[in-house]
Specification:
With 201 residues, the protein is mostly helical. Helix content is 65%, strand content 0%.
Length: 201
């Protein structure tokens, strides 16, 4: 069985969103008593989760290839407790130690905002990430706005029950349609494909 990569794991994770769409398509149309649109909301959460996990994995799989003396500047400044130096000294495969340190550092840190993603990728030698992917300043700005809009929509679902927050809203649900999920899936899959074309390892 071939080893996994950030891309192969992304392919597995994004299936959850596709499966939500398939399930939604096979259920009766939404009614007040059976609001199947919650499946679409779950799909939005799965899409952002797949993207977030992809960037965590991209960092994890790249960082273990570096050796002392060849570290990218950002990784060379990575801080660890002094007590961990013994782990480094005694390790036979030091790349694994480096990978474990960085993985632990990001374990509780989401990689969803363009800023957080860009900063994390600097650790593994990917600088000016968004500009490299987009090609120019205008497309970079548009790409970041699209990521932020998708993550904001995910946060409305995950943190606010997808209910409107204004005083006069009656706490009604935000609207959501199948096309929203289709758009987000296509956006993230295209983004990952562009990244893999530029940074395949």
């Amino acid at each position: 069985m071939p080893p996994h990569s950030a891309k192969t794991l992304f392919n597995r994770n994004i299936r959850s969103a596709h499966m939500c769409l398939d399930l939604f398509d096979h259920l009766p149309p939404p009614t007040p008593k059976l609001n199947t649109r919650w499946i679409l909301r779950a799909a939005v959460v799965f899409v952002v989760s797949a993207m977030d996990t992809y960037f965590h994995d991209k960092v994890k799989y790249r960082v273990g290839h570096y050796r002392f003396g060849t570290l990218p500047p950002q990784l060379a400044r990575f801080q660890i407790p002094l007590g961990e130096l013994e782990t480094w000294q005694s390790a036979h495969r030091k790349g694994n130690v480096l990978r474990n340190w960085v993985t632990a550092h990001f374990a509780m840190r989401p990689l969803q905002s363009p800023e957080a993603i860009g900063d994390a990728l600097k650790l593994v030698g990917i600088n000016d990430f968004w500009m490299t992917i987009a090609g120019n300043q205008k497309r970079t700005s548009a790409l970041k706005q699209s990521v932020n809009a998708m993550v904001r929509r995910r946060n409305q679902i995950a943190h606010e029950g997808d209910r409107q927050q204004s005083r006069r809203s009656g706490k009604k649900l935000h609207t959501i349609g199948r096309q929203t999920v289709v758009k987000y899936i296509a956006f993230v899959e295209k983004l990952v494909a562009r990244i893999e074309a530029k940074f395949p390892r």
